[in-house]
Specification:
The complex is a heterodimer of chains A (384) and B (379). Chain A has 384 residues and is α/β, with parallel strands linked by helices. Chain A is 39% helix and 21% strand. Chain B is 40% helix and 15% strand. The longest helix of chain B is centred in the N-terminal third of the chain and has 20 residues, at 36-55. Chain B is globular. The chains are: A alpha/beta (384), B alpha/beta (379).
């Protein structure tokens, strides 16, 4: 009995790269090696193909590898000797438990092998038909595609499991994600990391108005993101004093947008120190009062680096679908006190103007408060 | 740390830890085995049974070990229902723990009838209403001894006497999880047929409890297996848990006047808070149980809880079991307390190790934090 203990890893978009393809392939290999660390499995890179070998628990390895950005799909493969009879036997063994229609897709990378791909297709198809009478051939829309690749060894596989796609993390710089604990921000972080961007994250903690549990929830979400994005440095900013000052001294209807501006200011400063080139938020136009067009303009005005808002045109339900898919949804909806509830005005301004906000900000010692908040930051290194 | 969440769980006493250690490392045998060393395990169990029975006023009781209060409640209610021919009637209160309320809901799903009796503004069950609900087919009345959220002490003796006058066949079950040892109860004198208790609320281990029954009381088993615990709780006995529970019961009884001491602390806390923060409202009967004080503060309870936590004072909003749910406390609601008052409610629950000095410290910390937080309520 041949056992599937090799995983074929297909790379996606980075295959399209030209001269610097090697840079991307190496980065991807690093990420895959990191993902399968401590499982005993090893990675082999061979002529644009990647194979994971020495696999003990195939399900575990598939779960880990399909989460690596840059991987297009994977297939558990059966390896056999470069011998015609061995190929037939293996093909028959693989197709015996199946029903329905099939076709054979053979590829001959090793041109020294005596049969070309057309001959292989025909002969293997014939052998399978003879030994598996329950199967029929359908070359146009088969239920199963039996792939046979003749290389330094022969690899056979039927299953093709889609992976996340995207680009290897670390090939596109570093950005700071504003991570709140809600549904949106983890999704936003996921989407940017998927384009090869390394993540840092920043969270605003308002103890005792928010609890240790709320902070733990953010740590848990960051860990889930780290499974895709690799290690994440999480900055936890003490935000209570700033919120209290705003509450006591500034107009009620502006509280949310003012708070938002200070969050962006702090993120902007911390991001610079951490060598990040951009900020990432989970904002979506019109979702809440501070995310109206005017609100976004006002919070954007305090930043001097690009702010990426990958969810800007998403409906809430679309965002929730992605959150479910990447596994953060259940944690995001845990009911711990959100940082905003007590300090949320009943009637927040939906059309704030930068000039009026600047006037309100003169009422507090903004620079001093921002400075103290940054000095009080707790850094948590999140490992996948 | 000042730990005032003893109704959620207590710190195991050293006697319990030692007894468990011994049964885990030395007397580890299965009590059902028939060689001599295993008999020690059996002796430890009998010893714990006796300690519990005596603590409830008579050595002439069956003590059936369970995994805790919840399982005892389940066996009492479902086990009674399973013996009935046809559909029966059950009575309980609106302020029970979910271990009773959810089991009662299951009885209803099985086709039985359940009447839920309300409480007065102190959380004490309306006895007249309860007695009036008793019918010819009332199989069992289940009333908690002490309410877990507000510390109301239910008049068990009166309930039992009046229910039995009306229907002598009706069984009386008491959920004693929050009452056991802290509020003395004599099962025979007070006419209690079934009594559930839990180990970890009296400085014993978690995962152990008991259902104590009069010797003539019959219930059916609700799980199936090797016939342990009179056939009512099948599965190998949790000997370390039982040893810890027995040791905890004995250790508690050796304490000097725990009731009076806790009551002194509770009154010091109540009076201190009242003086320091005049706007507070005490939720529940005064004096009530000696170890539970429920207070509504003029700020959001959850925020104050975390502020107190930041100063090393641990307490809870509502009951710990229910406080991860976001709905308002069903107990305070049944007492007619408004949602906004429930929002500011905190429960302080004491044990005999707490001191009056600690209460003064809590008052000081609470006053300080309430003054700050009062400025930050949602406008």
């Amino acid at each position: 009995m041949s056992i599937k203990n090799v995983l074929l890893v297909r790379i996606g978009e980075i295959w399209l790269k030209g001269e610097n393809r090697n840079f991307f392939v190496k980065a991807l290999a690093r990420r895959i090696k990191k993902a399968i660390e401590n499982t005993g499995a090893t990675l082999e890179v061979n002529q644009g193909r990647m194979f994971v070998r020495n696999i003990q628990d195939m399900d575990e390895i598939i779960a880990k590898v399909t989460k690596v950005f840059g991987v297009h799909s994977v297939s558990p493969v059966v390896q056999c000797e470069k011998d015609v009879q061995a190929i037939y036997d293996t093909a028959i063994e693989m197709m015996t438990p199946m029903t329905g229609t099939f076709k054979v897709i053979a590829r001959r990378a090793d041109k020294r092998f005596p049969m070309n791909s057309t001959m292989l297709n025909e002969e293997i198809g014939h052998e399978v038909l003879v030994h598996c009478p329950q199967m029929k051939v359908d070359v146009h829309s088969p239920d199963h595609e039996l792939n046979v690749e003749v290389r330094e060894n022969v690899y056979l596989y039927v299953e093709k499991i889609p992976a996340v796609g995207g680009m290897p993390v670390g090939t596109n710089g570093k950005a700071m994600l504003l991570l709140s604990g809600g549904i949106d921000s983890p999704v936003a972080g996921y989407m940017i990391a998927k384009r090869g961007v390394q993540l840092n994250a920043i969270h605003y903690h308002s103890f005792p108005f928010t609890s240790e549990q709320a902070k733990q929830k953010v740590v848990d979400l960051a860990r889930m993101l780290a499974e895709y994005a690799g290690p994440i440095r999480l900055y936890v900013v003490p935000f209570t004093e700033l919120q209290q000052e705003l509450y006591e001294k500034c107009p009620d209807s502006q509280l949310t947008i003012l708070m938002r501006r200070y969050m962006m200011r702090i993120a902007n400063e911390v991001a610079k120190k951490a060598n990040c080139s951009a900020l990432i938020t989970g904002e979506s136009i019109g979702q809440v009062a501070s995310q109206t067009m005017d609100g976004l303009v006002c919070s954007n005005a305090v930043c001097d680096m690009p702010v990426f808002r990958p969810l800007i045109g998403f409906d809430k339900s679309d965002i929730m679908d992605v959150a479910v898919k990447i596994g953060t949804y259940e944690t995001s909806i845990l009911p711990y006190e959100d940082c905003c509830t007590i300090f949320t005005p009943k009637h927040p301004q939906t059309k704030p103007k930068v000039e009026t906000l600047l006037e309100s900000e003169k009422l507090i010692d903004g620079d001093g408060l921002v400075q103290r908040a940054i000095e009080g930051i707790e850094i948590i290194n999140i490992m996948p | 740390m000042i730990y005032l969440d003893n109704s959620a769980t207590t710190k195991p006493c050293k006697e319990a830890v030692e007894a468990m250690n011994r049964t885990l490392s030395e007397d580890f045998f299965n009590p059902s085995a028939i060689y001599a060393p295993a008999m020690q395990a059996g002796k430890i169990m009998e010893d714990a049974r006796q300690a519990i029975a005596k603590a409830l006023g008579s050595s002439d009781l069956h003590v059936l070990f369970t995994s805790g209060g919840t399982e005892g409640d389940n066996i009492a209610l479902l086990g009674t229902a399973r013996l009935l021919r046809g559909k029966g009637h059950f009575i309980t209160t609106k302020v029970e723990h979910p271990a009773i309320l959810e089991t009662a809901a299951e009885l209803e799903r099985l086709g039985h009838e359940v009447t839920y009796i309300g409480v007065d503004k102190y959380g004490v069950v309306n006895v007249d209403e309860l007695v009036a609900a008793v019918k010819e087919n009332t199989a069992l009345v289940s009333v908690m001894q002490v309410n877990n959220e507000v510390g109301a002490v239910m008049p068990i003796a009166e309930i039992s006497r009046r229910v039995k006058e009306k229907n002598p066949k009706t069984l009386i079950h008491v959920d004693g999880v929050q009452g056991f040892l802290r509020v003395p109860l004599n099962m025979k004198k007070e006419g209690v047929d079934l009594y559930s208790l839990s180990g970890h609320k009296i400085h014993g281990p978690k995962g152990i409890g008991a259902l104590v029954m009069g010797k003539t009381v019959r219930v059916s088993n609700i799980n199936f297996g090797g016939g342990q615990e009179y056939g009512l709780r099948n599965g190998t006995e949790n000997v370390p848990g039982i040893a810890g529970l027995g040791a905890a019961v004995k250790a508690y009884q050796k304490r000097e006047n725990p009731y009076e001491h806790m009551m002194e602390c509770k009154i010091a806390l109540r009076d201190g808070l009242k003086e320091a923060i005049p706007e507070i409202i005490i939720n529940g009967e005064i004096p009530g149980a000696p170890h539970i004080l429920n207070v509504t503060f003029p700020v959001k309870g959850e925020v104050l809880l975390h502020a107190l936590e930041g100063k090393g004072v641990m307490c809870s909003t509502g009951s710990a079991c229910a406080s991860h749910k976001k709905s308002a406390s069903h107990v305070l609601t049944a007492m007619g307390i408004s949602d906004s008052e429930i929002d500011g409610a905190l429960r302080f629950s004491l044990c005999p190790d707490n001191t009056v000095e600690e209460m003064r410290e809590v008052v000081r910390i609470a006053k300080e934090n309430v003054e700050v937080l009062k400025k930050f309520v949602r406008r």
